[in-house]
Specification:
Blueprint: E1 18-19, E2 25-29, E3 35-39, E4 77-79, E5 87-92, H1 99-106, E6 114-118, E7 123-126, E8 132-135, H2 151-165, E9 173-179, H3 181-195, E10 208-214, H4 224-229, H5 234-239, E11 243-248, H6 256-268, E12 274-279, E13 285-286, H7 288-301
Helix pairs in contact: 2-3
């Protein structure tokens, strides 16, 4: 059964907000337990404005391991489970950020049975910044069905995520989640799970148990339905994969319409176990109400124990 849950949450001024939206970011504590991100460059990006950038910059390799340009992933941060290890979640940061920013927050989640792996994306030229380099899972200029997706870069990052999960114990549930561009990469991994292959046709061998995306969008959305129809058992694998999407209506970086449209396309393409949570007025950051929802959803869908 398709599940669309629209939960409107008001973002109050006295709540702790964690902002992960700027390029070359540094997590800095502020007054009253707030956190903000300081941007080291003066480039402002806005995916809702319809900017048109070319994809002529260097891109990463694919699931097969081939690359046109040598790119190296940054440091990976691991938050180990405090109780019995039941699930491992690779969590992907947003554009210009790094894994350590999220590992600090994830360590505070009341999920003692979860191991969190927080990698850092390669530094590459990004079309949205006019070719200025920053950490990015793939190249992006605009979120639009009229702009070609960086399939090579998406495959490269999805393969890195799969590699991080490949050494986990056989009895542990494997999941992918992320924020903004990290959410887009996580959703792309969900489609690879359904197809059992990357975009370039190489086999995808991970069996995912859940996917979470915050303030993100679905890459390669224009071809998803037709590809689903052409792959045996893709619909069955898609229908059995729980997906949680969360998005704020006040998001001025990745507009809410992109998250809502992504949910509709995923659902109509066969990803029927999908929940969309809408947060009224929430911008391109996360708040406790959202993270609490993530913890509840993961506990229920992964059948996690309490100790």
């Amino acid at each position: 059964m398709t599940t669309h849950t629209y939960s409107h949450r008001q973002n109050s001024a006295n709540k702790k907000a964690v902002n992960f939206s700027s390029c070359y970011s540094i997590l800095k504590p502020q007054v009253q337990g707030h956190f903000s991100i300081e941007c080291k460059c003066d480039t402002k990006f806005d995916f809702s404005s319809g900017i048109a950038m070319s994809f002529s910059g260097s891109t990463a390799g694919s699931g097969s391991g081939t690359t046109r340009t040598s790119l190296e992933f940054g440091r990976t941060h691991v938050v180990r489970p405090k109780g019995k290890h039941e699930a491992t979640i690779v969590w992907l940061h947003g554009l210009g950020d790094k894994g350590s920013s999220w590992s600090q927050l994830l360590e505070s989640f009341p999920l003692p049975n979860v191991k969190w792996i927080c990698p850092t994306a390669p530094t590459r030229p990004v079309a949205a910044f006019g070719g200025f380099p920053c950490t990015a899972w793939f190249d992006v200029g605009d979120i639009s069905e009229d702009v070609p997706d960086d399939l090579e870069g998406l495959d490269f990052s999805a393969a890195h995520v799969a590699n991080l999960l490949s050494t986990e114990p056989a009895d542990v549930k494997l999941c992918v989640g992320g924020f903004s561009m990290g959410a887009a990469t996580a959703l792309y991994s969900a489609t690879c799970h359904a197809f059992r292959q990357y975009g370039n046709g190489s086999p995808y061998r991970m069996n995912l148990s859940a996917v979470v995306g915050l303030s993100g969008w679905l890459p390669c959305s224009r071809t998803l339905r037709s590809r689903m129809q052409g792959v045996n058992d893709a619909g069955r694998r898609a229908a059995s994969l729980p997906i949680l999407l969360c998005h704020g209506t006040g998001d001025d970086v990745v507009a809410y319409q992109h998250g809502e449209k992504s949910a509709r396309i995923l659902s109509s393409s066969g990803f029927q176990n999908l929940t969309l949570r809408t947060y009224e007025g929430l911008g391109h950051y996360t708040i406790p109400e959202e993270t609490d929802e993530i913890c509840r959803w993961l506990s229920a869908n992964l059948c996690l124990g309490g100790t």
